[in-house]
Amino acid sequence: MYRSHNCGALRISDVNTSVTLSGWVQKSRDLGGMTFVDLRDRYGITQLVFNMETQEDLCLLARKLGREFVIKVEGIVRERSSKNANRATGDIEIEVSKLDVLNAAQVPPFTIEEDTDGGEDIRMKYRYLDLRRGPLQRNIMFRSKLAIETRKYLDSLSFVEVETPVLIKSTPEGARDFIVPSRMNPGQAYALPQSPQTFKQILMISGYDRYFQIVKCFRDEDLRADRQPEFTQIDCEMSFVTQEDILNTFEGLTKHLFKTLKGIELSDFPRMSYDDAMAQYGSDKPDLRFGMKFIDLNEMKGHDFPVFDNAEFVVGINAEGAADQFSNKDIKKLTEWMQRPQVGAKGLVYIKYGQDGSVKSSVGKFYSEEFLKGLLDAKGAKPGDMMLILCGETEKTRKQLNELRLEMGNRLGLIKEGDFKPLWVVDFPLLEWDEESERFHAMHHPFTSPKKEDVERMLNGDHETMKALRADAYDLVINGSEIGGGSIRIHDRDLQSRNFDLLGFTKTEAEEQFGFLLGAFEYGAPPHGGIAFGFDRLCAVLNNQSSIRDFIAFPKNNQGRDMMIDAPSRLDIQQLEDLALESTASAD
Ligand code: ASP
What we know:
It is a single chain. This protein has 17 helices and 22 strands. It has helices at residues 56-63, 120-125, 127-130, 134-156, 197-205, 243-262, 274-281, 306-309, 328-339, 369-378, 394-411, 455-460, 463-467, 493-502, 507-520, 535-542, 573-578; strands spanning 18-30, 34-41, 44-51, 70-79, 92-103, 160-161, 179-181, 189-191, 210-218, 230-239, 271-273, 295-296, 313-319, 349-353, 359-361, 386-392, 422-426, 431-434, 439-442, 473-478, 481-488, 528-534. The strands form five sheets. It has an eight-stranded mixed sheet with strand order 6-9-10-22-21-20-17-11, with helices on both faces. A five-stranded mixed barrel has the order 1-2-3-5-4. A hairpin with a 2-residue loop joins strand 2 and strand 3 (44-51). Helix 4 (134-156) packs across helix 6 (243-262).
């Protein structure tokens, strides 16, 4: 028998009990007469004590234990004379009578404690050691609970969990596919799913009515920080539903998860149209934990300040109480921050509203103090506030101001720890015109339905009309992170074909890639729609953490590599031959 208890279980009420514990040596301290060892497993840490006077041999053996040795001990629970209030087992220790070393360990390359001294790369390489640390163990266990609660909730609503295949044909979600060459079909390849989108729609046509799956998705994108080439979704689809039904169902799921896992009761989620989100926050995923809505300042045009006069759009934010907090030097630094290529602003204009009612501005030369004061008052600024202003082409300027708003929210400490602000963003455009490729792209994906009132215009309208079509598409945003997205789908063959046309598919291409779905639409496809939540991100957001990587047991690094198993790796010549890929084999 390896253990009667785990390392987090014993309390003062267990004093004098004989116990057996197994675990890892976190650290040992040798105090001459006594040796103390902290024994760790995933449940906690228990202090072991070895007494030189009464058990010399045992104590000498204990002194040889290194960090991360795996041991088994037998002993008696004793009350500690100096207690550790920070530890659940801190009132007791084990007076050891027997020690077995189950496995020795090399000195680990970094410390395995709450805070480690190991850098990112080394921790990725020795992921099995990093995963022993408290913060990661808590994250991975949280993730497991989140999956279990998700299943419980969806099961209670009669959702059916169905596994869809991993070796499939391309499903366009806007990224590149990972492909898997087929040995049995030389020259042909499978694609890994970017999502189970078409399969879940087919399941609706097959009558399953409510489907879900906690499922891996694969997207071969250039890796931005905190993107993973494989990630997990809570993927769902429902039949005979409107957008309203889906929003309510998944608002319910989100509330359930917050309540059961965090004890947080969320109130009803507000809704905002895509157009309003862009106009008021410059983002389709606004962080509503603080205000600073955009303020239209086009009335600053026409006052002989050429920069504004020549701009399509002048817009600002009011940073409350910031006038005194930002010196000229701070504003200069902020301007430089805005001018970095990542943001790309040309400049930054400020108007400070002094506590005494005076006005100071970087464009004071061009506007009378009276005008600026009038403007500040009209826009709701108060003495002590600072207005920050950008100008330029509307869409670009909004994006830049979004960056500035988020930065100011952080700098002014407006984000309260533990605050959660969910939001549904609705009424997304159906199509997005891409100037460069001169093509329409699906804003969500090609299976998304236009709003009912737009169907006629979609079937018969001209090019300009297409830009204005709205979709029954929605995103769930929490604290500025996109947690989920979905849409009501097209379930009519003609409308789906029209959408493929608009997206630049020829009839043959559409037939080749999606013939199965178009065909299925002809055999009784019910109205349906769905949503997918980013499971990794949901884990992180619920825990106020920014990195999804810390919630994935075996993540890839920024180059898409698994550092532990060292993948991807070269194929050998035989494999290349088997897969009919030998022509790509390199000379070495
Ligand atoms: N398949 C979509 C996605 O991965 C979600 C959905 O429309 O249900 O974003």
